[in-house]
């Protein structure tokens, strides 16, 4: 089993155990997403993107409720109202997508955030705060990817697929910001109990 698969399996087990103990709507939503693995929060985000038909980056309450139902989240209407008020920070009647992701992602210690940012900075060769295909050249070797080896993809297509792992599901533009990178690793972090192990995993993965 790969490291990512093992982390996902641990995350699912841990989230299901914790879910049975909590009554807080935000924590219930977070744990139900994490119970689907590290891509769980991104999966809900994709549903919201589909529901946001005008591509405004915001949802009203009915759209938010429809997204929860579509994703089969076990949250009743009253809990959904509480959640929406949490996400609608300015009381405008809509929730901002980026604020939703930042609020929903599991909290991380400063030590974890620091090592994630070190990995980001290593990939961001130009230092402009955004990882692009050009940044990956010489840092990430795509020539061993199965689809490159069998001729299905070019190296640039491998790079783009790699970036899509981290890119916001709301705006897949082939560019990964610091927040998107943090959001991805917040999901991975949720399955790892100790800072020491998480930091070791990151340093080994990115040769920091």
From TrEMBL:
GO molecular function: calcium ion binding
PROSITE patterns: EF_HAND_1, EF_HAND_2
Keyword Mitochondrion listed: no
Pfam family, one: EF-hand_7
Domain EF-hand, first and last residues per copy: 39-74, 75-110, 111-146
Alphabetical keyword list: Calcium, Metal-binding, Repeat
Domain of life where this protein originates: Eukaryota
Protein name: Calcyphosine like
């Amino acid at each position: 089993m790969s490291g990512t698969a093992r982390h996902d399996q641990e995350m699912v087990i841990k989230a299901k155990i914790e879910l049975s103990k909590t009554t807080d709507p935000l924590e219930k939503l977070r744990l139900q997403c994490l119970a689907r693995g590290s891509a769980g929060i991104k999966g809900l985000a994709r549903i919201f993107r589909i529901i946001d038909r005008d591509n405004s980056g915001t949802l009203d309450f009915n759209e938010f409720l429809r997204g929860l139902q579509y994703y089969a989240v076990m949250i009743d209407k009253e809990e959904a109202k509480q959640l929406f008020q949490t996400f609608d920070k300015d009381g405008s009647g809509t929730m901002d997508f980026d604020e939703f992701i930042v609020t929903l992602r599991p909290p991380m210690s400063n030590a974890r955030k620091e090592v994630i940012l070190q990995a980001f900075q290593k990939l961001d060769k130009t230092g402009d705060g955004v990882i692009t295909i050009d940044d990956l050249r010489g840092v990430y070797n795509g020539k061993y990817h199965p689809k490159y080896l069998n001729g299905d993809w070019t190296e640039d297509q491998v790079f783009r697929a790699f970036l899509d792992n981290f890119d916001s599901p709301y705006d897949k533009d082939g560019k990964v910001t610091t927040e998107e990178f943090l959001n991805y690793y917040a999901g991975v972090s949720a399955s790892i109990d100790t800072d020491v192990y998480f930091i070791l995993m990151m340093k080994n993965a990115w040769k920091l």
